[in-house]
């Protein structure tokens, strides 16, 4: 076993690039008068969330790394560190990212960590840095376990994960409209990811890809950006605070309040943790499926168009 | 990257970008040009609660909303807006207008800049329609 292999912490090394790219995008917007929006407190909150993410990685990173090294100690497989091994690891890790991201939108416990990334009503390069402080507590590290058990070194798995994160940085922009068709067909792009950040009913819960958009096309979650419907960024219920602590922890507090309210059975308490965001024991709230169904009932002509169900019946997406 | 380099880089980067944005005039709060805009901002957050009355603040940074389900408020969140229903709200006069405390972790305190006449009357509307 090659235990002493080290890979660079690419995300930290990319920090100067992040700062330079943000300044470049800002200047482009100011000079050209188009290509996105910036606002001071929104951007400051995003940047502080990014700094907190790095800090939480330094403080809690040992949990995931210890878990991976424990798996590495028991696996008999070692695929080495050739270029093609790293490339394969990158692709498989992107598939892993797709599912973690999808769980992040469909399981409230994971959404509690991921929601802060969607909490800005802006979409610019600082939004990319609005990252979670609480990812360790989602236990989604288990999704990387198969890669380690297959013989990819833990350092390599974290390295390609860092490359994945860096790739996703530049797609958080309105300054780039569409890229060549072949690129849009295979890769995640600003256009595809703008849709992912939309709060419009049709744009909810789609385009989970990290690097390769093919995963969404493969698993039926791809929705194209429509010229006829501008993306409205943010959450279904937008926050009323820029306080990074509230941004980071608000959904965890929501889960706690919901799951500990009096008069519930254990199954309902559990469901408040694991059902999709918007689920409630009395049906008083709306999940993304409810919101889409209600939209179709209000606008029947939209039924079956990208991102919307064919019928207005809650939770159904079948052809009539 | 060593922490001795990373930490100053992050600190200077964050402060520098924030100062630059402010100097470029990008700290201006959103304005609601008219009642139609305020109604649209409310419906963006509460599409099923149609306003029955909209009262715009004098500076156009906030609006009091009345609905059949109770009162609410729309206010500027940076360059954008958000809205909350006022159930469970505690409302206090301040030197610059009103402070609304809500039992809501995502919007615990709403500070509305109102002129003295608005600050005197808005709490009445908020209670009357609650």
UniProtKB/TrEMBL annotation, chain A:
Entry keyword annotation includes Transmembrane helix: yes
Superkingdom of origin: Bacteria
Keyword field: Lipid metabolism, Membrane, Oxidoreductase, Transmembrane, Transmembrane helix
Record InterPro entries: Fatty_acid_hydroxylase (IPR006694), Sterol_desaturase/TMEM195 (IPR051689)
Name of the protein in its database record: Sterol desaturase/sphingolipid hydroxylase, fatty acid hydroxylase superfamily
Cellular localisation: Endomembrane system
Entry-linked Pfam families: FA_hydroxylase
Membrane topology category: Multi-pass membrane protein
GO cellular component, one term: membrane
GO BP terms, alphabetized: lipid biosynthetic process; membrane lipid metabolic process
Disordered, as annotated region: 300-320
GO molecular function, one term: iron ion binding
Primary localization: membrane
Segments crossing the lipid bilayer: 12-31, 43-75, 81-99, 147-170
Keyword Lipid metabolism among record annotations: yes
PANTHER family in the record: ALKYLGLYCEROL MONOOXYGENASE, STEROL DESATURASE-RELATED PROTEIN
Positions of the Fatty acid hydroxylase domain: 87-221
UniProtKB/TrEMBL annotation, chain B:
Keyword Transmembrane part of the UniProt annotation: yes
Keywords assigned by UniProt, alphabetized: Membrane, Transmembrane, Transmembrane helix
This protein's record includes keyword Transmembrane helix: yes
Top-level division of the source organism's lineage: Bacteria
Transmembrane segments: 6-24
The protein's name in its UniProt record: Uncharacterized protein
Organism: Roseovarius lutimaris
């Amino acid at each position: 076993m090659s235990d002493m292999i080290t890979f660079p912490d690419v995300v930290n090394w990319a920090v100067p690039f992040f700062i330079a790219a943000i300044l470049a995008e800002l200047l482009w917007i100011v000079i050209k008068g188009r290509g996105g929006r910036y606002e001071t407190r929104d951007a400051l909150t995003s940047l502080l969330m990014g700094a907190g993410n790095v800090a939480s990685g330094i403080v809690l990173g040992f949990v995931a790394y210890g878990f991976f090294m424990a798996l590495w100690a028991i696996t008999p497989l070692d695929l080495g560190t050739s270029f093609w091994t790293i490339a394969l690891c990158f692709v498989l890790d992107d598939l892993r990212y797709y599912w973690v991201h999808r769980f992040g939108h469909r399981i409230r416990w994971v959404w509690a960590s991921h929601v802060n990334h969607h909490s800005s009503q802006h979409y610019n390069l600082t939004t990319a840095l609005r990252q979670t402080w609480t990812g360790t507590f989602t236990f989604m590290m288990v999704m990387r376990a198969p890669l380690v058990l297959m013989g990819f070194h833990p350092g390599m798995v974290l390295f390609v994960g860092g490359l994945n994160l860096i790739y996703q940085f530049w797609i958080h922009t309105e300054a780039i409209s569409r890229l060549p068709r072949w690129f849009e067909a295979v890769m995640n792009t600003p256009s595809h990811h703008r849709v992912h950040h939309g709060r419009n009913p049709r744009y909810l819960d789609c385009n989970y890809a990290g690097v390769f958009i093919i995963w969404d096309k493969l698993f039926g979650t791809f929705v194209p950006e429509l010229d006829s419907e501008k993306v409205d960024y943010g959450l279904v219920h937008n926050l009323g605070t820029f306080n990074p602590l509230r941004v980071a922890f608000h959904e965890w507090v929501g889960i706690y309040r919901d799951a500990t309210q009096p008069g519930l059975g254990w199954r309902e308490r559990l469901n408040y943790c694991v059902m999709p965001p918007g689920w409630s024991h009395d049906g008083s709230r709306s999940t993304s499926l409810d919101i889409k169904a209600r939209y179709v009932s209000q606008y029947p002509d939209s039924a079956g168009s990208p991102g919307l169900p064919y019928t207005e019946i809650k939770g159904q997406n079948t052809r009539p | 990257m060593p922490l001795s380099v990373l930490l100053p880089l992050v600190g200077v980067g964050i402060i520098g970008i924030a100062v630059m944005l402010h100097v470029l005039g990008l700290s201006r709060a959103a304005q609601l040009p008219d009642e139609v805009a305020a109604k649209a901002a409310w419906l963006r957050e509460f599409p099923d609660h149609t306003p029955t009355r909209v009262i715009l603040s004098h500076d156009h940074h906030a609006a009091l909303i009345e609905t059949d389900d109770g009162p609410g408020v729309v206010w500027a969140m940076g360059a954008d807006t958000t809205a909350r229903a006022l159930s469970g709200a505690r409302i206090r006069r301040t030197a610059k207008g009103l402070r609304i405390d809500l039992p809501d972790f995502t919007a615990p305190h709403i500070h509305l800049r109102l002129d003295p006449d608005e600050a005197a009357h808005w709490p009445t509307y908020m209670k009357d329609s609650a």
